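Section 3.1: Structural characterization of target chains.
Under the original work plan, the team committed to producing a structural model for every single-chain target entering the pipeline before any wet-lab resources were allocated. The record below documents one such target. The sequence was received from the expression subgroup and is listed exactly as submitted; it comprises 293 residues.
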Amino acid sequence: MVSLDRLTHLTGAVPIDNVENAKFVIEDFCTNDIAIVTTNKSTNICHGTHFHDSYEFVICQTRIPHCVIDNKIYDRPMNALFAVNPMQDHGLAMDIKNSGICGVHIKRETVESVAYEIYGSPNIVFSNENFKVNNDIKLLANLFLEELKHKQAGHKFMMENLVHMIIGNLMRNIEHSLPSKPHNKPRGYKENIKKVIDYMNENYTTGVSCAELSKLINMDKYRFIRIFKKQMDKTPYEYLLDLKIEKAKIMLKAKDYTITEISMICGFSSHSHFTYTFRKRTGLSPSEYRMDI
């Protein structure tokens, strides 16, 4: 069944005059990062324009004339692929019936995250011209939909990686503003990571999460994890664990607290979890480490 609330979160207002019968005129497949919308012969797309904060990539399954982006009119042939950037005014100059389009709406932060990984900058702007869709993009989109439909073990992991592959292939096939060779990454990322590390040092005793840390620097969670790992050679989770172990070592040397107290102070869920993690990181149990001092 079509979920219009989830759909419009990414796409904005749906320009379909019979959208009250949405389950008959469109199919939508949504996650938090991506919505893939496919129309059918019952779909009537209204003239007029709209905008949204997501990137939109459209595959034309039939010819779509009278497309408008920023007051410029385009004729989209069958099998054309084109992009709409966040907040670009776009739509149709005339009503269209029996159209066949597949619209891929992707959250701005997710596209920017992939752009940063590939080109060294998140500031990507796509051309609005026509490009030819290739089989790789179609295959990846179909694989994503299969994972979303059947929800087998590990489907969330598979979908996340497929989304990144879809975006990467779109970037290879649609002209955009970023150079083919990566440039230096902004210094601001180092400052952001330092801010996160300072926060970890102050709050390691509590349940600090990646969502909390990424929110601290206003960054998409998955992009934050990748940038952190590139700069620190370990994930935020691994860094936090190592930080807790180093703090625990200091307390074990001081001998002011019991091992159970140290495990609680350092934010471990239990004595056994602390012992297991400490041994894995140091090769010794906490009691063995204390005895060797």
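Confidence is low (pLDDT under 50) at residues 16-28.
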